[in-house]
From TrEMBL:
Entry GO MF terms: L-serine ammonia-lyase activity; threonine deaminase activity
Keyword Lyase set for record: yes
EC code(s) of this entry: 4.3.1.17
Pfam families listed in its UniProt record: PALP (PF00291)
Similarity comment text for this entry: Belongs to the serine/threonine dehydratase family.
Lineage: Bacteria, Pseudomonadati, Pseudomonadota, Gammaproteobacteria, Enterobacterales
GO biological process: isoleucine biosynthetic process; L-serine catabolic process; L-threonine catabolic process
Annotated Tryptophan synthase beta chain-like PALP domain residues: 6-289
Catalytic activity: L-serine = pyruvate + NH4(+)
UniProt-recorded name of the protein: L-serine ammonia-lyase
UniProt cross-references to PANTHER family, sorted A to Z: CATABOLIC L-SERINE_THREONINE DEHYDRATASE (PTHR48078:SF2), THREONINE DEHYDRATASE, MITOCHONDRIAL-RELATED (PTHR48078)
Signal peptide (residue range): none
Amino acid sequence: MKIAIRTPLIHSLPLSHHGGCNVWLKMESSQPTGSFKLRSAAKICRYYAERGATAFISSSGGNAGIAVAHSGRKLGLPITVVVPESTPARAKQLIEQEGARLIVHGKVWSEANDYARSLATDEVIYLHPFDHPLLWEGISTIVDEVISDGLKPDAVILSVGGGSMLSGIAQGLEKHQSDHIPVYAVETPGTASFNASLNAGKLVRLDKVSGIATTLAASQVCENAFNVASRLDVRSVLVSDHEALNACRRFLDDHRVLTEPACGVSLSLLYDRKISFNPADNVLVIVCGGASVTLKGIAG
Ligand SMILES: *Cc1c(COP(=O)(O)O)cnc(C)c1O
């Protein structure tokens, strides 16, 4: 039984036009839960389920929590998701819709996360939202699919929150001997924990995070994402909240797909031509998606 699905890889005429290159979209927005997080969640839940896990606990009020809830439902195992008081009603609704038990605990994510971790046992497995090799392995299948569809990208554009996407894509590129190509890692100024770490030459924790791209709001990226930057040609780019929102709106018109601003940051690189690509370049954009978005939420 498949949990995460093989997503479409489509050539985008409008984005190719705006970006001045050949743009290919990997439509992770088409995953059943609306984001690539289903690849990572399904991978880790299946792994532990095969080794006797009887339940799972997650601490994400975002796409990771929704993906764990979905995976648990598919595997027939109960899921608990602990979220902080700040979690929007929409996110809670999506988690409960998947049949998970929702616990609201703590003011911020770290408090909810500590509580979730404290509930774990040998059979009740705690799942970190972005920092685990099995999560990255699940995400690396994006590259497997792109290569098997016959595309050898000249560059990749992706969004960075806690760094599981960057870690997984890097793993996939290394597996397919494509780790020489540039990887554009995009954040907003208010969530720029990866950018801050690159600039400092060491892992940095932001004092506060802010802005519209709440899905990218990890105050510190995982250590592996930072290490990837020393092996691959990773280039950090920042995109304003305004540009991210605008890119979501343009993408909705061009491709009829609604995405979170966390995804809009990557699309903005092309819509706003922030990078000068060679016209012959095949540029792969990971359309990471996101479920906590409504038409009203991106209306201007
Ligand atoms: C999780 C997520 C991100 C950020 O990915 P990380 O692996 O945390 O860096 C970006 N966009 C969407 C839609 C996400 O769900």
